[in-house]
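Thread title: Can someone regenerate the structure for this chain?

I was given the following input by a collaborator and told the matching structure tokens would be attached. They weren't. Posting the sequence so someone can regenerate them.
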Amino acid sequence: MDYDWLIIDGYNLMHADGGPEGRRDDLPTARQRLVRRIEQAASGMAAKITVVFDGREHGRDIALDAPNLEVLFSPADRTADGVIEQMVNNAGHPDRILVVTSDGIEQRLVSVFGASVISCREFLLRCEAPVTVSTRSKRTKGSTLGDFFPQ
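Best answer:
Regenerated them for you:
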């Protein structure tokens, strides 16, 4: 693990990944899908993962929590960005934090506090399963064009 703490701007990541499908009332389902995907794909990136959503719900959603993963909602008077910035600023070792956001202002601010930052697109690429390459596509001595384009 490269970092102690991975902090993710939840809605920023959700929209980078195509946004919630369907109606607005499907948002809780879309959040749940995103959190479960993060849980599966990012568990090896940091010892602790926090996903922060803007929201009216405020506080922690223990129904979405998992071992080493917590889901928080910002209070009505603050944004998820503000909560993330405060978390990084208050951290004892911000250099051990990786923040996932595509918001340029937030990226610069948490970087000033000492955290590392990657865009949502880069995070999604890191989470993708490795693509296996067929041995058939590898060029070996004595292979012919017919090996690559069978009739």
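The CA atoms of residues 8 and 79 lie 13 Å apart.
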